[in-house]
Amino acid sequence: MSVVPMKRVMICALKKDRKAILEYLQRQGVMEIRAFMEEDDTFRRQDTESARQLFMKNSELAAQALSVLDKHSQEEKGLLSSLEGRKSISAKEYYERLEDRDEVRGICREIVSLEKEYADDKAQIPKLELEKISLTPWLSYDLPIDFEGTKQVAAMAGTLPGALTKEEILAQLSENTEGLETLEVEVISSDKEQTCVLILCLRESEETVREALRKMNFAKPPLSNKNPAKEIEAIERKIDALTADAAAVDKKLSMLGSERSRIRFMQDYFGMRGEKYEALGELGQSDNVFVLNGYMPASEVSRIEKELTEKYDIVYETADPAPDEDVPVLLKNGPLAQPLESVVESYALPGRGERDPSSLVAVFYYILFGIMLGDAGYGLILMLFTGIALKKFKDMEPGTKGMMQMLFYCGISTTIMGFVFGSFFGDAVSVIASTFFGRDDIAFKALWFEPIDKPMKMMVFSFALGIIHIFTGLGAKLYADIKDGHVMDGIYDVVTWYLLVGGAIVYMLTSKTMTDMLGLTFTLPAIVGKIAVGCVIAGAAGIVLMSGRSSRSIGKRAAKGLYNLYGATSYLSDILSYSRLLALGLAATVISSVFNLLAGMLGKGHGVIGVILFIVIFLIGHILNFAINALGAYVHTNRLTYVEFFGKFYDGGGRRFEPFRLNTKYYKVRE
What we know:
Blueprint: E1 6-14, H1 18-28, E2 32-34, H2 49-72, E3 87-90, H3 91-98, H4 101-135, E4 153-161, H5 166-176, E5 183-190, E6 194-202, H6 206-215, H7 228-255, H8 260-280, E7 284-285, E8 289-297, H9 298-311, E9 314-319, E10 328-329, H10 341-347, H11 358-373, H12 376-392, H13 398-421, H14 428-437, H15 455-483, H16 487-508, H17 512-518, H18 526-546, H19 554-566, H20 568-577, H21 579-603, H22 607-645, E11 655-656, E12 667-670
Parallel strand pairs: 3-12, 10-11
Antiparallel strand pairs: 1-8, 1-9, 2-8, 4-6, 5-6, 7-8
Helix pairs in contact: 2-4, 2-8, 4-7, 11-13, 11-21, 11-22, 12-13, 14-21, 15-16, 15-20, 15-21, 16-18, 18-19, 21-22
């Protein structure tokens, strides 16, 4: 278990070397820069926000251009391309690529502009289509729709709701115009939704007719100074022109897809510059020098000092952080525990004075996962895929690589547990032997026992492993207290619980009823039970008397002690939580066996078709079962770690080490 020791570092150098030193530290990625707080008449912090925003704006422009290219120029990617990680380039190539940054920035602007043109074209087409649809019912009308008649005759073109005949329209108009006879109605088109009509009347009757039409819900059509047929032709020409223009723009954008690599580099570059200017704003600066403060892993201090002092005139000072400083946390572990650092960090990093629990987590994590998935076939699949991924993708990102390594070790554990408990794709071996070879004497035998045949034995094993897990957590707390010189705290807070919980467990094992119920072949003698009762009483007394020792009042101490004693019930629920080892292990095995049975029923006695059906059902069933139960094993292993294990000794609360580094998305620079 290792939390990397940190040093507080102060670097003072000439202002002319500021850019080079900052870029060096950014490439090394080993120093967390802290704000310079002691401003005075000599040293002040520089306002770099406007410059930072300019660089970030350019980075966002590149990201926007890439997003546009993804829509118009699909990039061929492999199924596992997400595992490839960032492309590694040399420092020489990095500086060579910088030479055309202005050109690439212009390309990004062109791409964004073309996308706007493309979007405008596409947005206009639906509007024109709607306009065309609205004019279609007037296709046979040979006058402009906005024609209003002559000096003596008024013309009113429009629509009436529903399907109406000329006679029906005239009848309704007659009712509302008191028998006005100088009316002419022409039906242009009619459907169940509306009727398009042209109404003609004398000018002196226009207002009367319009009032009558209003009562009939008469509506004016889209106005146009052309006749509908010519207007529709013009709209179609516009649509064709916009479609052609959009296609041309799309082709241009597709051709610009070849610029992806350069644009990605620009996004990373301007992002790095923005972060550098953010760091620049944290420095204390005078007219000629600058001061940089921060934290650095102790193991890196000498190397960085040597490399900086060889190139620049600097003052380089280091010191141990004060006990009350907010020191960032960085973890460092061996190959088995390192992949589980992400699991620990997801809960919380070690707080001040706490030890890294990653190694302890590793001892149990792989075992718990393996028991829950518990199938040798699934374990081999997990090992195969993660092993190939780790070997093939050398530039995999650290987080992804850690996950792959963790799953690889989980695959090893799952394979071992599959052999221990006799599961290889469930009972696939016996089903295949029986279905296709007529052999009922071939099976994948368990090295220990099969949980599906002896569930009570598996439950006892799960509880026993849970007790060991929980007691190990308590032991970690005891170790930390002793190591920190708080021996009595360890006795009061840990040993008392060992006596209480351990004594209660031992006492239960002196009862034949309990051992028979658990399927155990032994019962502890009565004398052991008496000793266990003494341990329980001693543990309970210690908890009542000493767990509230921080209070000066005897009454408050007793009350806190009794309340903490009541917490013994939580140990029972914690131990019962480990029954999920039985539940998930059985679930994986039983579901596998069900799919095997179904595949065997369809495959037996049906020749080649039966073999094909067997393979299809077998593959679909086991892929689904593997996916569901692997996810369940991961979730519940984390749950047992976070709640039952960490709850006994680990508080967390540390702050992650955030070094000033190249936080790029697509490229990483080799020093």
